[in-house]
Amino acid sequence: MKKVLLLIIAFLNVFVTLAQDGVVFEAKVSKEKLGINERLLIEFTMNKDGDNFTPPSFEGFRVNSPQQSISQVYQNGKKSLSKTYSYILTPKARGKFTIKQATVEIEGKIFKTLPIKIEVTAAVEKPSDSKTADDIADDNLHLVAEVSKQSPFLNEAVSVVYKLYVSPNINVSDFRQLDNPKYNNFWSQDLPIKRWKIENGTYKGRSYRYVVLKRVVLYPQKTGKLSIEPLSLDVTVDVPTNRRDFFGGRIYTQTHKTVSAGNRTIRVKELPSGKPEGFSGAVGSFDFNVIPSKTDLKATESLQLKVEVNGKGNLKLFELPEINLPSSLEVYEPKFDANVSTNLTGTKGKVADNYTIVPQFRGKYPIPSVSFSYFDPKEEKYKTIKSQEILINVFEGPVGSGVTGAPISSPGFNKKAVVTAGNQFRFLKLNPNLQPVQKKDLFKSNLFYSLLLLPLLIIPIAIVVGKKKKLMEADVAGNRIKKANKLAKKYLSEAKKAIGKKELFYESLERALHNYLKAKLHIETSEFSKEKISDLLLSRKVSGETVTNFISLLESCELARYTPASEVTIQHDYNKAAEVISQIDKQIQ
């Protein structure tokens, strides 16, 4: 009884002191009794801004997600402030615990909260702890990796689409990639996403908005269980609270969540037995052709023979069949040519080996049939396509040994004298139709005096121009600045025209930044992540600050399409882009 009286007296003394100073500093908990499988919310609130806030030690609890929030409300012309420190506590064990005093310094005085007693019981069947910002974010934010096939064949295309699902109950203000998955034991092809598009969909029976963040096509290079590493993001989430502002609007609190798509496992099946002879690993649906550019020609003329595969499948991952040609044909190393594109269903297009063939002797040369074998995963069987036999007719030229349709002679044949046809000089023109030139006295003409005085005028002009050129060439730094500024204006001209239109401006700005790197570094930056672009610029001796500014601009272009942007912000981003391009052009090596 005495302890209770002492606590009441102490509380009254504190209350009187606070009332006198006009300061309120108190601690509130969501509940004083909870199960060990529940969580506890404790808030330390003050009505004036204070310094040196010191929370209690929270003995017996694990601390999760500390947050700080400040709100100002105008009521009857007066401003009032509320500053809150919030903590989510998880019990470590059952029992009775005391949350000790928190302290803060306000206007030079130290203020303390009252201790709070908490009882932790056995686990409850249905935890009823009030949901925190983290809880709400967990329930309404999901990163999902959608895999097109769970049991593909070896070298069969598998697509992975990473989607970020966001419930209408929360807002995502920003996110950044923490970890980019590595596709070990896969041949991978990223499908660039030029702009994010917000779409409506469902996830586990609930309505969500979602954005496709990344798309990749994989061709497994190993059989058995293969793991696809997760994509991880750090997401800034705005979560609504139960509080409202002066105008009745919902007050949001901000929290950071790390979301991951999780490891995905697929089982890759071995190709069936009975592989045809010459099978080189082609999997898909294909057509095969051997196409000569011509079949009738003279000796020492050339023809092109194309061995071509077109269709849909792992076009970049197998070898084309070789052709067997008569030894009397001179054949050069084939030139490989590929015209393929990749989408979510896989790679399609055509690949070809182009042979240059030069016959040396007259005759008929048969090119035998060529076979191409592949595995069709839809029908789950091997297929073989054979080309038609081709006959090359060399109708004019010297005769060699062992050629079809020509007399056989010893390998060392005699060289024949060159016989002229009698019209080898027919391109010479025998009647030139020349006209006589009229005689004029050059020394008495205006042309003579003009040519005489012209050097006297050109020499001083050349001296002046030469001096200016030397001065400009000596100014190395100035020339680089002028060149860099001119380059920036060139690439940003389209973006400058669209400054008044937000979406068009940021599309043009992003295209200008990628085109600049493409022209400067001779790379396709659309196939690169921001991390690879950053590494590439740093390797070319561009300063870290400049690289950071460049990546920041790319991120602004991606986010600005979905968030409001004022004309001031747009103009700032334009000026920043011009400055960054100039800096890179001056620093890059």
From TrEMBL:
<keyword id="KW-0472">Membrane</keyword>
<feature type="signal peptide">
    <location>
        <begin position="1"/>
        <end position="19"/>
    </location>
</feature>
<dbReference type="Pfam" id="PF13584">
    <property type="entry name" value="BatD"/>
</dbReference>
<protein>
    <submittedName>
        <fullName>Protein BatD</fullName>
    </submittedName>
</protein>
<keyword id="KW-0732">Signal</keyword>
<keyword id="KW-0812">Transmembrane</keyword>
<dbReference type="InterPro" id="IPR025738">
    <property type="entry name" value="BatD"/>
</dbReference>
<feature type="transmembrane region" description="Helical">
    <location>
        <begin position="447"/>
        <end position="465"/>
    </location>
</feature>
<keyword id="KW-1133">Transmembrane helix</keyword>
